[in-house]
Design brief:
Layout: H1 2-11, E1 20-22, H2 28-39, E2 52-54, H3 56-62, H4 78-86, H5 99-116, H6 126-129, H7 142-149
Parallel strand pairs: 1-2
């Protein structure tokens, strides 16, 4: 199994210089995979922890004022944050915990974040750029979204 994973990573162009962007608060998954592969004799495939960027920390730093009515911080799990940014009718909404869906949601969140970091006058029409998001943009209250995610 380790040999097949190592071969697949290499064939996809993964090297120790590859940068991994994750929606997590830590680098445990990359570290665990790297240590497992190395333990099975496959060295020099995955990068070190310094090449793993947990973007959720950037979102958290910029959403410090977003609070629920009970005073708790707005939850930043991808199944909650994605619909808050892109609406509950987006085709990727509610389909989490599938690698491709989580990856596409992460990409869209990073694209949105990069636009929101710019001055408003310098931003592209990022909602349109990211796939006519306006047609999916039906928001629920944050409280309703949070309640549904806890069920």
């Amino acid at each position: 199994m380790a040999h097949q994973i190592a071969d697949k990573l290499k064939s996809e162009g993964i090297t120790p210089e590859t940068v991994f962007v994750v929606w997590a608060t830590n680098k445990k998954d990359l570290r665990a995979l790297r240590e497992w592969l190395e333990g099975e004799g496959h060295h020099g495939i995955l990068p070190g922890d310094s090449k793993c960027i947990p973007v959720i920390t950037d979102f958290r730093a910029n959403l410090t004022q977003a609070r629920l009515s009970n005073g708790r911080a707005f939850p930043l799990t991808l199944p909650i944050a994605f619909p808050a940014f892109f609406g509950i009718r987006h085709p990727l909404c509610g389909r989490n915990h599938q690698a491709i869906v989580d990856t596409l949601q992460l990409w869209l969140m990073i694209e949105a974040f990069s636009q929101l970091c710019m001055r408003p006058s310098s931003r592209e029409d990022w909602l349109t750029k990211l796939g006519n998001v306006g047609t999916w943009k039906r928001q629920e209250t944050l409280e309703n979204s949070w309640a549904k995610s806890r069920v």
